[in-house]
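Final report, closing paragraph on structural work. Over the funding period we assembled a curated collection of sequence-structure pairs, and we close with a single example.
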Amino acid sequence: MLIAGLLVILPDIALAKGYYVKERVVISLKKSPAENAATIGQASSDDYLEVRDQSGSWVKVVTPRGSEGWVLINYLTEDSPRSLIIEQLNTKLKSSTDNYRMLQETVRGLEKEVRELKYKLSNSAVEVQKTKNSFQKLKDSSSEYLTLEEGYRKLNESDITKTKEIDELTKENKKLKSSERIKFILIGGGFIILGLVTGFTLNALRSRPKQTGYRL
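Its predicted structure, as stored:
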């Protein structure tokens, strides 16, 4: 039965690329596939042995250190040893831990950037509010300026109108004064002429000789 079992597993050996040494064993590498053959090296637990040849229950392998020899297949396994699995898991864990730390550093950096952005945003909001206030003041000032400008324009128009009215009244006043002067001159001249005529008439009457007697 042992021979039959070996015949069953020999094709698998031919197809296999390598085996691991079983746990808790140290096996001897023989110079030839026989128990009494000279020992030329050793392979320890969890070593991965590359298969180069096979003969019955013996396989010719190469160790990770480059030693080549024959070992019994009973001490080998295709399954990855637990220590190797644990090592691989530890490596993955370390890698994951390193990645996690890197992610933490990245997150801290991002959080710092977010805080800085929030601070800048807060300052920007203050500046925006100041700008809005300035704009509102400017808008109010502009409205007040437009109101004042409109009032000034109306006052200016009213002043121009009143100036024209004053000019017209001044002209009328001058005309009236001229008319009054003419009337005064005419009236004064009339009185003078009347006085002269009256004086002349009185003088003429006074200078006429008196007649005596009566004429029939």
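The radius of gyration is 70 Å. Confidence is low (pLDDT under 50) at residues 1-15. We thank the funder for supporting this effort.
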